[in-house]
Amino acid sequence: MKGLFIVFEGPNGVGKTTVMESVCAAIEHRLIPVVRTKEPTTSDLGNFIRKHQDVYTTEVLACLVTANRYEHLDRIVRPSIDKGRVIVSDRYFPSSLVYQMMDGLDFSFIKSLNDRILIPDLTIFLTADEKILSARLKQRIQLTRFEKDQKKEVQRYEDAQSYIEKMGWNTLSLNSGEQNVHELTDAIVNAIVAIYKATPRNV
Q: Is residue 37 within 8 Å of 87, Cβ to Cβ?
């Protein structure tokens, strides 16, 4: 059995959590097994990164994040795919391109760390106007250093999408400021189901 690896990307405040929950529920309703995950993960290393992401920067943080990514692939993603499940991840390699480049690192360094990662079957980019993102983030109690410059974050995500499309990744871009959750869910689920049906179940 072979499953799918689906990734959700987008700037903070874009609504990934809400849309992901809706998409996962819709896929499960079709009796397709789903595993939801995220980066950094909930492992000891992932929790360490979340706790110290404002302490460690540049090369140190980039290496920690990448190590957690390989751990994620080995322990969660690949085993789930082998069992025929659709694994849906909140953030992946494009987020490294965004936040590590915001930290001052160049693309070649980040890419070299990630040369052996698994390419997702579909990477979904959620976008929204900066004013919408800013308004949503104001509702949060505390912001990380990466959440304080929406303009740069949005631009980096546009750059990241352009990079991975040139690398041949399959992407889908949707505007969460122009479409409601139901519309976004329908578009995403239709794309995922189409890929799932086209993927051989025996490997």
A: yes
Number of continuous H segments (helices) and E segments (strands) in the chain: 9, 5
User: Whole domain around residue 140: which residue ranges?
Assistant: 4-198
CATH number at residue 108: 3.40.50.300
40 prior amide bond cis, ω within 30: yes
- Residue 169 falls inside a structural domain: yes
C-alpha to C-alpha distance for 3 and 152, rounded to whole angstroms:
35
CA dist., res. 119 & res. 168, Å (int) = 9
pTM above 0.90, yes or no: yes
Residue with tokens 């659709």: 86
**Run of H or E residues at 116:** none
Instruction: Report which DSSP code applies to 120.
Output: P
pLDDT at 128 over 60: yes
Mean pLDDT on 38-59: 95
User: Which pLDDT tens digit goes with each residue over 78-94?
Assistant: 999 999 999 999 999 99
pLDDT above 70 for 143: no
Distance of CA 1 to the CA centre of its chain: 24
Look at residue 203 and tell me if it is in a domain. no
Reported as type and span, the H/E element at residue 86 is: strand 86-90
